[in-house]
Amino acid sequence: MSDNPLFKRTIHKHEVPSRYLPEENRSIRIYLPPGYQPWMSYPVVYCQDGEEFFNFGRIATHAQRLILEEDWEPFIIVGVDVNIKLRSAEYTPDGSRYSVYTRFFAEELIPWVESQYSVRDMPEHRLLAGDSLGGAVSVSLALTYPHLFNRIVSLSGAFYDVYIEQIQQASSLERLSLWMIVGLQEAEYATDRGTFDFVALNREAAKRLEDKGAKVRYQERDGEHKWGFWQQVLPEALGAFLGPAPLKLD
């Protein structure tokens, strides 16, 4: 089976050029589904913390199994890498690199991917996914670029006050659909900004989003702020938008 191109799993790595980022490029990795054909079009998942989603979340392995064994429509995954030392600066709205990172993501990364691969270019076929700060910045991107993004997976989002303020300042969010989860063992998690109750942060964010009209599938389960928890729930999270029986979020 492994020799058959219809079952091949392909991952490409690229350096995407940037006029905004000081280092002038960003590393990404792209999963192509089995049987990928450039003349077809595919839904696409854009992941913050791309290296971790691929290595620790095993998102490409999940996707391969779901497409081949559970008959999901094939989809593409784009993992956007981040320098861990610059992560807070890029992902947090009051961070020193937030504006250049989000501009890169929306104005350079998306057009580059769409020029190189057969991904669909409509918001309903783009899914933003992130863990912790990555989940929160995914919401932030959707608020800043509503014409590009309206579907989000947030795994234990780090919804600090700066993100809540963004949600509060937004007008109607009826276009947004979110799948959110947080672990019940995340009630006292240490971050570079202090120790936070992530359960409380996520409850607050979900409520504020729903108050603005967003469709939110919010869950709390036993789990820690670790990839061991997020890896287990990734298939369900993806299935909310990409599976054969998606949740009624729309």
Structure description:
- The protein is of the alpha/beta class and 250 residues long.
- The chain has a single domain (5-242), classed as Alpha/Beta hydrolase fold, catalytic domain (Rossmann fold).
- The chain is 37% helix and 22% strand.
- It has eight helices and ten strands.
- An eight-stranded mixed beta sheet has the order 1-2-4-3-5-6-7-10, with helices on both faces. Strands 8-9 form a two-stranded antiparallel sheet.
- Helix 6 (161-169) links the parallel strand 6 and strand 7.
- Helix 6 packs parallel to helix 7.
- InterPro entries: AB_hydrolase_fold, Esterase-like, Mycobacterial_A85_antigen.
- It comes from Cohnella boryungensis.
- It holds the Pfam family Esterase.
- This is Alpha/beta hydrolase.
- GO terms for molecular function: hydrolase activity.
Q: What are the key terms here?
A:
8-stranded mixed beta sheet, 250 residues, 37% helix, Rossmann fold, two-stranded antiparallel ribbon, alpha/beta
SSE layout:
Layout lengths: L9 E8 L7 E8 L11 E4 L2 H6 L3 H11 L6 E5 L6 H5 L6 H19 L9 E6 L1 H12 L6 E5 L5 H9 L7 E7 L5 E3 L2 E3 L1 H14 L3 E7 L5 H16 L8
Parallel strand pairs: 3-4, 3-5, 5-6, 6-7, 7-10
Antiparallel strand pairs: 1-2, 2-4, 8-9
Helix pairs in contact: 6-7
CATH superfamily: Alpha/Beta hydrolase fold, catalytic domain
Gross morphology is globular
Radius of gyration: 17 Å
Structural class: alpha/beta
DSSP E strands, number: 10
Reported CATH architecture = 3-Layer(aba) Sandwich
Strand content: 15-25%
What is the CATH top level name? Alpha Beta
CATH topology: Rossmann fold
Major sheet description: 8 strands, mixed
What is the N-to-C succession of helices and strands?
EEEHHEHHEHEHEEEHEH
Tally of discrete structural domains: 1
Placed side by side, the strands forming the largest sheet appear as 1-2-4-3-5-6-7-10
Give the uncertain stretches in residue-range form.
none
First-last Cα distance: 38 Å
